[in-house]
Specification:
Blueprint: H1 5-23, E1 30-36, E2 43-48, E3 52-57, E4 63-69, H2 74-77, E5 78-85, E6 88-95, H3 104-107, E7 113-119, E8 124-129, E9 134-139, E10 143-147, E11 152-157, E12 161-165, E13 170-175, E14 179-183, E15 188-193, E16 197-201, E17 206-211, E18 215-219, E19 224-229, E20 233-237, E21 242-246, E22 254-258, E23 263-267, E24 273-279, E25 284-286, E26 290-292, E27 300-305, E28 310-316, E29 321-325
Parallel strand pairs: 2-6, 2-8, 3-7, 3-9, 8-10, 9-11, 10-12, 11-13, 12-14, 13-15, 14-16, 15-17, 16-18, 17-19, 18-20, 19-21, 20-22, 21-23, 22-28, 23-29, 24-28, 25-29
Antiparallel strand pairs: 1-4, 4-7, 5-6, 24-27, 26-27
């Protein structure tokens, strides 16, 4: 009986899988501890191709690094490098063998790995990983975080924060500096921000709360929600509805639109604004005491609130629009 090409390929793959299992080392554990010189005001750089990275700002001086794994062959499959230079400490984890083509998947090392680092609070941090989740907290310096293998979580950051994930969601809270957030692997959620926020997601919705500065948010993977905005708001979505609530006293206005759903806007009725709202997919309702300019229409409204001011531009091609008081 002859064997077809696809049958032969399946037998080869099965054989290689059996060989890989037979050659696998016994399960064990790895724990590596390093102390790197790093004074307050320095920079920590972590680049890893495997595992989760956790950085905490709670050390008086130096970078205390602890690498753990649930297997005892981590150093056989990955090259771990720990370096220190004036003003900088670095941890690098790289695969020793790259493999080739589809066979690389059979060579991939399986196991849980965590890289935990404690640094002085006044430390700037750069973390890039293709292996998993990133968690950072308790820092006074800037942070640049990027993961293609998991989510990004950060809180209690005094400096600027840039975070990107193509492997999961982004969760941020309690940040004093500006935020630049992007995700193609999940939604974006940030709350308690003193600076400006730029947030984008193609993997889910964008949810922002209590942002003192300006907001620029857009999503093609879900809706956009902004609550307690203290500055000007530019919010758009092609994946769902847009809901914006300005903080009391905020008269900065904004540009708000959706092609994926309706739009809701809540503003302080005591501030002055130029209101320009129109929908091609539904009605426009306004509960504010706006002095209407031009013709009255159920699908648009143009007028001024309390003598006018900054422009509030609202558009929807995905549903209706409602503008109401806080």
């Amino acid at each position: 009986m002859s064997i077809g090409g696809w049958q032969l390929a399946a037998m080869v793959v099965a054989g290689l899988g059996a060989m890989a299992l037979a050659a696998a080392p016994a399960q064990g554990a790895t724990r590596i501890e390093k102390h790197l010189e790093l004074a307050p005001g320095g920079q920590l750089i972590v680049k890893s191709e495997v595992g989760r990275v956790v950085v905490r700002g709670d050390a008086a001086s130096g970078a205390a690094v602890v690498v753990t794994a649930d297997r005892d062959d981590l150093d056989k499959e990955y090259e771990l490098t720990f370096t220190a230079a004036p003003g900088q400490a670095a941890v690098t984890v790289k695969r020793r063998s790259r493999g080739w083509g589809w066979f690389e998947g059979w060579q991939h090392w399986r196991g849980r790995v965590e890289i935990a680092v404690s640094v002085p609070r006044a430390t700037a941090v750069t973390v890039h990983t293709s292996g998993g989740r990133i968690e950072v907290a308790g820092l006074q310096g800037n942070a640049d975080l990027g993961s293609s293998g998991g989510s990004v979580v950060a809180h209690e950051i005094a400096g600027k924060l840039a975070a990107h994930s193509s492997g999961g969601a982004i969760e941020i809270h309690d940040v004093r500096g500006d935020l630049h957030l992007s995700s193609s692997g999940g939604g974006v959620h940030a709350t308690g921000v003193q600076g400006d926020v730029e947030a984008w997601s193609s993997g889910g919705g964008v949810h922002l709360e209590q942002v003192a500065g300006s907001v620029h948010a857009r999503s093609s993977g879900g809706g956009v929600t902004v609550r307690g905005a203290g500055g000007r708001v530019a919010a758009s979505s092609s994946g769902g509805p847009v809901r914006v609530s300005f903080a009391a006293g905020n008269a900065h206005g904004g540009d708000i639109d959706s092609s994926g759903g309706g739009v809701e806007v809540h503003v302080d009725p005591a501030v002055g604004l130029d209101v320009d709202a129109a929908s091609s997919a539904g009605s426009v309702a306004c509960d504010l005491p706006v002095t209407v300019q031009g013709k009255i229409s159920g699908h648009s409204i143009h007028g001024v609130l309390h003598g006018g001011g900054e422009r509030l531009h609202v558009r929807s091609s995905g549903g209706g629009i409602r503008i109401s008081a806080l």
